[in-house]
Amino acid sequence: MRKKLVNILIAIILCFMISIPCFAFTEIPRREYAVGWQISQPASGFSLKIPYQTDFYIQPIFTVSMSHQETITYGHYALGLRGIYNLQPHQDLLPYTGAALGYAHSFRKKTDSDSDSNSGSSDGSFAYQAFFGVEYQKYLIRPALEVGIGGSNKSDGTFQAGVIFNLSVMYYF
Description:
8 strands, eight-stranded antiparallel beta barrel, 61% strand, mainly beta, 1 helix, single chain, Porin
């Protein structure tokens, strides 16, 4: 099952990468698309950077993970949406600013036939952040580091806020 999911994701990425260059030959100014991995809270995972306007990007983030052991199934999924505005570049460094919203949900469910199959626990959290980042643009694969402020509201009613640090590695085409 996991192998099939990985193959499907790779096929989607390849189709997306093959179809994008067709738009580069039109009279619209060329904008760079990116695919990669974003590490942020609560949504970390596979990410696309889609140009919206000249210096503005929309960046959806998606991840899913599931494992099964003898009597317990556990996993999580996360969804996020980020808006990024590029500032004036300085040599190989591109500063940017942005805002993000995200939701993550984790679960743990007992699957033993001797116990109640509905027993288990789940936990979700909703988060937001405003950040400033710098991307190193010398190569096609570009690392970035972000610093900002953010907050997280969990399903149990607790709220956390503070300074956040995010990382990403993106491939531009």
